[in-house]
Amino acid sequence: MGDLSFIEEIEKLKTNQIIPNIINSLPNRSLKVKYGIRYIDMSDKLTPIAVKDKPTIEYLLNQDGSEENQYFTLILVSVDEPSKINRLEGEFKQWILVNIKGNNISKSDELVKYIQPLPLIGTGLHRYIFILCKQPSKLDFIGEFKIPFNMEKRKDWNSEQFIKKWNLTVEGINYFECEYDDSVEKLLTELIDSKEKTNQINK
């Protein structure tokens, strides 16, 4: 898996209405996503329990070394809320990393803690989109919310507005689809019961 050519990736994004319906920018590089030992191909159908743990993210930098000190943002967002045919609730933040230095994911700030997909029972397949963006510089993201393991401030979001607000440039896109399994109810209960607090980033 994960062996589509870059041209095939672009065509899949268009065919499956990711571009321009959700993201109005073409990517410039491949974004590889690996859950466990499996690389995903765009539109792969996965179960929530199979993507319970955060994935490994891979992308190449420019060969001339000019991006080694470049900063990137990675977004994972659910776009089909509450369902693909009834997208009325905005997007749901699953995971956001900011200030990634080069392609070293370990050198980043976790703005939104990773949680697995939470498609509700009877709502069919949902699309989960990874968006890699280039930052203009290292950013403080003042005014944004640092979200831990809870449900607060994740709902009714818009990734395009976030990208424009912080002057980000879309570089890579990948996505998979997912529908309900029993792990969803368990995680929802844990999230609702969580005592961890969301904090707004101030100066």
UniProtKB/TrEMBL annotation:
Alphabetized SUPFAM superfamilies for the sequence: PEBP-like
Do you know which CDD domains this protein is assigned to? PEBP_euk (cd00866)
Q: What InterPro entries is this protein classified in?
A: PEBP, PEBP-like_sf, PEBP_euk
Q: What protein name applies here?
A: Phosphatidylethanolamine-binding protein PEBP
Q: Which organism is it from?
A: Dictyostelium discoideum (Social amoeba)
